[in-house]
């Protein structure tokens, strides 16, 4: 849908976060890791079962594979290379942390050459991941070379970022079939061909996007047909492609647009009352071995903000211009049911929205899409998506990231994605014995430190739940199995009322701290860095 409004009379209720465990939500039990890995090979197991039924006997496990592609759209002004490698102290967003925690070869936009990827051979050539820098920051792979006001203010070059992500699907497929990747110059040439032009403005760029995408797809037809039918003993049969898409802020808006533009690439229905096949298939192609089944297994969003073009601060305008125009509502279940298997949207309740209103995933009729969950959390925008360093504004003082409020949302999103089979790295001690040699599945120590969470933070978070939401704590501490689960609680009110309630608490706190001078005694007031003070 578009921004949160108060016009709908019937609205589904929002969700509230569950009690947060002192140990965090990373899996520590081996059987949980085993379940996650089994979900990743569900298509392979289904294909094996199909062969057994056809032969009416138990047949040998076939050589086959599914491609897993994870895409990470960072927020406005956020950039992995700067935030992780140049800034002092470093302050990566939760998108960057999840990118690092994801299994896969691939590419990190703007940070080529950095040790962020897994070896493609070690991981079986099945796992790939791609990082897309936030609008307004350098992304040389699309010829966006510097920080820009137009990107920060109007989300300029967002379309190119989404198209670059779509081209990664071609790139992964091409590499899997031919061992060749698209060069940056080839990608830039395709991006130019895909972009919206004045004479195709009425089509919203769909004509150019579809034409160039399938031009590249058609070049792989011969190899795809072989891989989808009978590739031979030395090669794996290709079963399909599964996507895991993450986004923060305008990056979350880009992620939602990506999913909608993906539906435009699906083949048209073959007849009346028919749904489009959920596969990549060139126009007029009838050979079933020349298509590629595709699905979005997980869509993880941190506090979506579109504000593309002129923002909502101007009357009549809603900030949904250009690539955000009509692309923020998730695909219809009636037409594309099952394409997006799971969607989780974590929402900030204390952000002062003004010209950057939050875009709920609730539909325009007031209902939530099947398989989706929208959960409210305390804090402002970057307390959800991350990006604050320890000590910013005098808060989260310490030598680690353990007191950053955004660590809560990081663990929540990790747990939600892990439950559905997202290919995520895990603590080394959680690896089952049969996977102990797959060191690429385990978190390095430095990455584990980025997920560190203080018990003080979990206590403060749970106190917020109890006081402002009226949610009681469990009688017993959460077990390791319970801790790894993402199980939010359904609220008794819709999103708007829940946010209004939180704003009431915030306003009362502000009045209190100013009225009696409490502010002057607060630790954060004394610890806040005075970077902008004028020199005497």
User: What are the low-pLDDT stretches, counting only 5+ consecutive residues below 50?
Assistant: 309-321
What order do the helices and strands follow? EHHEHHEEHHHHHEHEEHEEHHHHHEHH
Helix content: 25-40%
Quantity of strands, as a count = 10
Measure the end-to-end span. 50 Å
For the CA atoms, what is the radius of gyration?
A: 23 Å
Mean of residue pLDDT values: 90
Tally of separate domains:
1
So how many helices?
A: 18
Strand content: 5-15%
Describe the main β-sheet briefly: 8 strands, mixed
Shape estimate? globular
Structural class: alpha/beta
Would you give an account of this structure?
- The protein is of the alpha/beta class.
- 35% of the residues lie in helices and 12% in strands.
- The protein has 18 helices and 10 strands.
- It has helices at residues 30-40, 42-55, 80-86, 94-100, 149-154, 158-178, 184-194, 206-218, 221-228, 250-264, 333-336, 381-385, 406-419, 445-450, 455-469, 480-483, 495-515, 523-527, and strands spanning 13-16, 64-73, 105-108, 127-132, 237-248, 279-280, 292-302, 343-348, 372-377, 489-494.
- Strand 7 (292-302), helix 11 and strand 8 (343-348) form a beta-alpha-beta unit.
- It is globular and about 75 Å long.
């Amino acid at each position: 849908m578009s921004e949160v409004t108060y016009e709908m009379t019937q609205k589904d209720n929002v969700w509230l976060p569950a009690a947060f465990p002192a140990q965090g939500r990373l899996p520590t039990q081996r059987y949980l890791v085993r379940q996650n890995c089994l979900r990743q090979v569900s298509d392979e197991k289904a294909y094996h079962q199909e062969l057994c039924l056809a032969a009416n006997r138990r047949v040998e496990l076939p050589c086959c594979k599914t491609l897993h592609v994870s895409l990470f759209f960072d927020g406005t002004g956020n950039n992995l290379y700067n935030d992780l490698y140049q800034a002092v102290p470093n302050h990566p967003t939760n998108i960057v942390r999840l990118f690092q925690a994801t299994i896969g070869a691939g590419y990190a936009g703007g940070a080529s050459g950095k040790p962020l990827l897994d070896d493609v051979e070690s991981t079986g050539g099945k796992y790939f991941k791609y990082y897309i820098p936030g609008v307004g920051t350098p992304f040389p792979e699309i010829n966006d070379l510097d920080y820009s006001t137009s990107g920060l203010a109007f989300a300029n070059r967002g379309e190119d970022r989404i198209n670059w992500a779509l081209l990664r699907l071609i790139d992964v497929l091409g590499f899997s079939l031919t061992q060749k990747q698209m060069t940056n110059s080839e990608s830039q040439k395709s991006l130019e061909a895909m972009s919206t032009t004045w004479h195709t403005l009425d089509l919203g760029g769909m004509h150019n996007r579809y034409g160039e995408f399938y031009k590249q797809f058609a070049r792989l037809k011969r190899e795809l047909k072989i891989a989808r039918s009978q590739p031979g003993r030395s090669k794996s049969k290709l079963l399909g492609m599964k996507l895991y898409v993450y986004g923060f802020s305008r990056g979350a808006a880009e992620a939602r647009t990506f999913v909608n533009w993906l539906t435009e690439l699906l083949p048209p229905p073959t007849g009346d009352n028919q749904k489009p096949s959920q596969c990549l298939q060139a126009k007029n192609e009838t050979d079933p071995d020349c298509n590629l089944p595709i699905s979005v297994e997980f869509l993880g969003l941190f506090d979506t903000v579109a504000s593309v073009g002129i923002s909502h601060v101007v009357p009549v305008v809603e900030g949904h211009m250009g690539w955000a125009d009509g692309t923020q509502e998730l695909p219809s279940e009636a037409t594309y049911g099952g394409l997006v298997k799971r969607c989780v949207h974590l929402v900030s309740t204390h952000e002062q929205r003004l010209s950057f209103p939050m875009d709920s995933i609730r539909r325009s009729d007031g209902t939530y899409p099947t398989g989706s969950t929208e959960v409210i959390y305390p804090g402002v925008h970057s307390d959800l998506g991350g990006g604050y360093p320890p000590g910013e504004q005098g808060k989260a003082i310490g030598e680690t990231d353990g007191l950053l409020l955004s660590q809560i949302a990081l663990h929540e999103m990790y747990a939600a994605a892990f439950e559905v089979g997202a290919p995520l790295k895990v603590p080394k001690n959680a690896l089952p014995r049969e996977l102990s040699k797959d060191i690429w599945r385990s978190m390095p120590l430095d990455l584990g430190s980025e997920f560190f969470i203080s018990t003080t933070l979990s206590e403060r978070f749970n106190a917020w739940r109890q006081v402002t939401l009226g949610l009681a704590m469990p009688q017993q501490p959460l077990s390791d199995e319970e801790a790894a689960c993402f199980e939010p609680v359904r609220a008794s009110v819709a999103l708007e009322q829940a946010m209004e309630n939180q704003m009431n608490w915030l306003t009362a706190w502000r009045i209190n701290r100013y009225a009696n001078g409490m502010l002057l005694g607060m630790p954060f007031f004394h610890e806040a860095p005075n970077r902008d003070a004028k020199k005497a």
